[in-house]
């Protein structure tokens, strides 16, 4: 934890305005608007195909912006040239359900990957990798190949890789989807710890249990590409009768999930 | 920057070991491609050398001094039958030479001594031999020189003239070879390059997952391309060298397979520029395809 404490995150924020996105005739996102400040943590929920992954992909510039305006980590994605996308991704950590790690490389190599790309000195890289590994309970596996680890350990490697560069924004696309409930809760704690040091976190999940265990967290629910629930003032909720409603008052996640 | 460059280049090499099976498969494929291209080059080189040199019989006209002992001359004629590349020999004693001359002058076999009584007693013509030989060795000019010296050194020989008969096909080949060799060489190099590039592209496809992760981690294009370029150069170069070694081995086994009369066809190893192409073409195109293949991921 020393490393994470020492590496307090600088300001990070996300602003999305009237974002819409289509895949052919299918509209994946409909007029989505919300904003998050430094240190905010939001659960992004909704059924499969609701647009969660599409939203996250736009936030890390894996999809182009068709309509609307998006700012992430002080960068306007509408004006972001493709040659500057790596700069954005150095500010944004991403964790996926399918881990996206290099199975043939060691834990150490996987975690060090983003630091390697920055050209840091080997000693510096080693120090940071060891600190993050210790924080995530991976110090005993550092020389093992990732392909030989369990699913939970592989996911921790993926999280460590996202953490190691102190991103301003952390996007997690159902990172606990392949893990058992107990392990999911433990990983969730890691994200919360990370948030405590100032990172802005969007955590996409189906798990109501996870959200119920963190009643103070923001929750944003997407259905059919539109925000149908949000419990903090910075989100615009879509209702059939009106395009934009007043932002909801902040409510506990459990209340929101009950449809309150 | 240089630190990242070195690190990425090193990763390009270590990636080969990590993906050992795919790498070995690619190197194996490149080896075979280079080997096949090498066989084509070897055929081309052999054709060029064989058709480009004087291949036909060379006839030596050997003239003895007048009055040389005919037994000595006949002994030399016997010796000519055992010369390497011997094809035929026509011999003329002074009398036979006179008769031949008479025939050529259109006298229909009339005796020259009858026509010209002052030629009686052998006349002024020397003993002569026309020896047809096939050039030996790789350097026909040198052979010609050495054989002429041999004839001149025979006892009683006054003069030796040679009339190397150059093959019409050879002369024609010399005229057109520059329009055939280089385009064929370039075409084969292109095929070699395209095939090598495609092989490497398949290897890149197998690593698409890795490219995606690198992009997510904030890698610039050159971060991704450099290891692939290094891998491409190493695999392409290794495939080319192995192909060349295979070709060399093949050449040692078959170089003289057709080198017997009447073919006397020696198979030649491709010249240095073709050997260089066998190594450099796959290496360069593999590097290029490694660079281009990462586009779109």
Distance between the termini of chain B: 24 Å
Q: What structural class results from the helix and strand content of chain B? A: alpha+beta
Q: Within the CATH hierarchy, at the fold level, what is the topology of the largest domain in chain A?
A: Rossmann fold
Overall geometry of chain A comes to globular
> How many helices of chain B?
10
Q: What is the rounded distance between the termini of chain A?
A: 37 Å
- What ranges of chain A have pLDDT less than 50 throughout 5 or more consecutive residues? 1-12, 240-260
- β-strand percent of chain A reads 15-25%
Looking at the overall shape, the CATH architecture of the largest domain in chain A is 3-Layer(aba) Sandwich
Could you give me the name of the CATH homologous superfamily of the largest domain in chain A? P-loop containing nucleotide triphosphate hydrolases
Name the strands of the widest sheet of chain B in spatial order.
Answer: 2-3-1-4
Report the mean per-residue pLDDT of chain A as an integer: 83
Number of strands of chain A: 11
Task: Describe what this molecule looks like in 3D.
The complex is a heterodimer of chains A (260) and B (297). With 260 residues, chain A is of the alpha/beta class. Chain A folds into 2 domains: 11-91 and 170-260, P-loop containing nucleotide triphosphate hydrolases (Rossmann fold, 3-Layer(aba) Sandwich), CATH 3.40.50.300; 101-166, no CATH class. Chain A contains 9 helices and 11 strands. A 6-stranded mixed sheet of chain A has the order 6-7-8-3-9-10, with helices on both faces. In chain A, strand 7 (169-173), helix 7 (181-196) and strand 8 form a beta-alpha-beta unit. Chain A is globular and about 45 Å long. Chain B is of the alpha+beta class. Chain B folds into 2 domains: 2-53 and 169-293, no CATH class; 58-165, Alpha-Beta Plaits. Chain B has helices spanning 2-18, 20-52, 70-80, 94-104, 112-115, 140-152, 168-205, 208-216, 221-254, 272-293; strands spanning 58-64, 86-92, 128-133, 157-164. In chain B, helix 1 (2-18) packs across helix 2 (20-52), helix 2 runs antiparallel to helix 7 (168-205) and helix 7 packs parallel to helix 10 (272-293). At the A-B interface, helix 3 and helix 4 of A face helix 1 and helix 8 of B.
